[in-house]
Amino acid sequence: MKGETLFESFRTISAKEWKQKIQYDLKGKDYNEEVVWNSPEGIKVKPFYHADDLKHINITATPVTSWRIGQVIYAGNAIMANEKALKTIKKGAEALRFLIPSENIDVSVILNNIDLSATKVYLDMQFLSKSYISNVLNTIPSSNTLIFQVDPIGHLARTGNWYESMSSDFILYNKLIALSAENITSIDVALYENAGADMVQQLAYAMSHANEYLNTLEENGNLNKLKSIEFKIAVSGNYFFEIAKLKALRNLWKILVEAYGISIPCHISSTPSKRNKTIYDYNVNMLRTTTECMSAVLGGSDSVFNMNYNSVYKKNNDFGERIALNQLILLKEESYFDKVENPAEGSYFIETLTGQLAEKALILFKAIEKDGGFLKQLKSHTIQNRIADGARKQQEKFNTKKSVLIGTNAYVSVEDKMAQELELYPFVKKNPRKTLITPIIEKRLAEELEQNRLSHE
């Protein structure tokens, strides 16, 4: 009809009608058994989603107007790190994460000729030092824009030990916050993904982990000095769920800080998961990292740091880094992933997943806090045991081929030989040492299978 839009010419179809049509087409087969599946997080995934699904879900959209192409640089030598950084910026990098192994590394040398107003810089220090950070803030112009990745709790979870002790680490952390830098706190959520935690666990542990810092800051009167917080996220291959995971993280953080009566933004930096990466048929890793970076962007990451497709077994090399950087450039420049604000917003499926993940994570978070908090559960090994249970379930699915990694446990090329290609030891390293708690260990799904194949080459 004249004046009528295309959409107005179609009547609204209810969710009930859609379900009836599907049940009719199933010809007597059970709807729940045939087209509904359960995710590892206990979420029932339906064959279709409708506006009705959003009626009982409270989602707050957090605009992310742009994202940065990131590159990780090891800064064992400050001059070489600076040279590499400048070359990387020319190639298209917009964010740099420097891995700083010791206090002997001069940050002013690393950042020489780098425009901090144009390039976001993360300092991932493998130590805890107030004098080091103070010196950076006092000597480097625009250093308030730097992100200092300080996370003593993450260090405890990863290594089993504090830098010095719980009391001294927390005292020093409070002193660092008092410096009033733009970002001094980083939450290492990637560790939980790479160790085998499911998404609900990752979200709940991220909040409980962060809550330990909020608690100590409140107790010491420093809460108002916290300006922002960073979450380091690892993104796996479950495309839509990972988009929802990142969106749920922002919603949960908003809920948490509102409980303290404050408003503090969170910054999300993402990288592909190590969990599903493989040695054999390693080129498939490029496909995996591409979709994972896509999820990271669509989920609202502020910066995305890609992983070299051969990083599992090969030392950093120009070709691998070039491919990793170009993947992100193609997503941004050729696929227009920077042209739409919140592209996943309004998707019934993703918005429903976001709400369900956030709701389940909030329940687990409250249970952790009721039991004494994240640190108490780390010390009692409750967190480690829960992650280990999730990892075992993932491993069983991989071993029985219910979870497929192309070229590794399915469509295997017997001609693929890797024993002579290994430059790095690609498996979990066993280094017995005395620790306060059992550390959370990252482990890839394909490790046992790959070790067996290598032994028979």
TrEMBL record:
SUPFAM superfamilies: Cobalamin (vitamin B12)-dependent enzymes. Residues 147-422 form the Methylmalonyl-CoA mutase alpha/beta chain catalytic domain. One of its GO terms (molecular function) is intramolecular transferase activity. CDD domains: MM_CoA_mutase_beta. This is Methylmalonyl-CoA mutase alpha/beta chain catalytic domain-containing protein. It comes from marine sediment metagenome.
